């Protein structure tokens, strides 16, 4: 008998070592694509994914101030923060597929496992870049808040889609152009290429989220923008605010009418 997709996803989520999680996430996505996993959900997703002992996770208010952007330490702090976001994003995508796959179907599982594989690649690229700067993932403290958005929406796939791809990942589309400028201003061509590649992938991730959200809203007879706004106001503690990267958002299937009303 083949392994079930949920068992493979759970095992990848429980990996603590970053390298092992990267390999496991990419393997689940590949095995699913090749038909080596059964579409069956016989195990639960973990409440907390496995993570390494370092970085130390700090509440947002206790994170050290960002250093000056141009300095060596500032550059390392930036790439370390990005590495952490991608590391958590691996588990966010795995959890999406493993937790909601049974009700959402095979296409949904395939979409979010491909996202998990992308996030694993993003993490690996950034971690390698950090090493060329003489650092590595785990060398600095990191933000503890990222997983909580997922945890808070663990009972409702519409809320999860509304908050994770359509708010948090869409936010990454907004901030990447200015990060890219800073990185280029520091003469970091290789870093700029990594960010450009990530931006392309993140547009696709937001689009997957938006497409599945729209399908869910239509099924339930709800208006897409009303449902999204009510879920965001109930489940997202931050604010959706400009500047927006309108062209990237549009490419991802988010119209200005949708998010401008919330801002
Ligand atoms: Fe990513
Ligand atoms: Fe992503």
Automatic annotation (TrEMBL):
Q: Where is this region: Disordered?
A: 48-69
Q: What InterPro entries has UniProt attached to this entry?
A: DUF455, Ferritin-like_SF, UCP012318
Q: Which residues form a coiled coil?
A: none
PANTHER family, sorted: DUF455 DOMAIN-CONTAINING PROTEIN (PTHR42782:SF4), SI:CH73-314G15.3 (PTHR42782)
Pfam families the record matches = DUF455
Q: What is this protein called?
A: Ferritin-like domain-containing protein
């Amino acid at each position: 008998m083949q392994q079930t997709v949920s068992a493979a996803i759970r095992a990848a989520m429980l990996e603590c070592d970053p390298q092992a999680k990267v390999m496991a996430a990419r393997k689940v996505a590949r095995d699913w694509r090749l038909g080596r996993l059964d579409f069956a959900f016989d195990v639960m997703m973990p409440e907390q994914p496995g993570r390494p002992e370092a970085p130390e996770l700090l509440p947002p208010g206790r994170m050290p101030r960002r250093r000056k952007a141009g300095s060596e330490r500032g550059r390392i702090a930036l790439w370390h923060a990005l590495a952490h976001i991608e590391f958590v994003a691996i588990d966010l995508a795995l959890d999406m597929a493993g937790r909601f796959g049974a009700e959402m179907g095979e296409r949904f599982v395939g979409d979010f496992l491909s996202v998990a594989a992308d996030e694993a690649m993003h993490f690996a690229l950034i971690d390698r870049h950090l090493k060329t700067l003489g650092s590595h993932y785990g060398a600095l403290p990191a933000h503890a808040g990222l997983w909580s958005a997922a945890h808070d929406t663990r009972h409702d796939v519409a809320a999860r889609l509304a908050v994770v791809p359509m708010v948090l990942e869409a936010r990454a589309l907004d901030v990447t152009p200015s990060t890219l400028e800073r990185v280029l201003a520091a003469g970091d061509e290789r870093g700029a290429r990594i960010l450009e590649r990530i931006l392309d992938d993140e547009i696709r991730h937001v689009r997957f989220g938006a497409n599945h959200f729209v399908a869910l809203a239509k099924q339930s007879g709800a208006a897409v923008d009303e449902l999204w706004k009510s879920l965001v106001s109930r489940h997202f503690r931050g604010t959706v605010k400009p500047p927006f990267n309108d062209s990237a958002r549009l490419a991802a299937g988010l119209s200005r009418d949708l998010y401008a009303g919330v801002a």
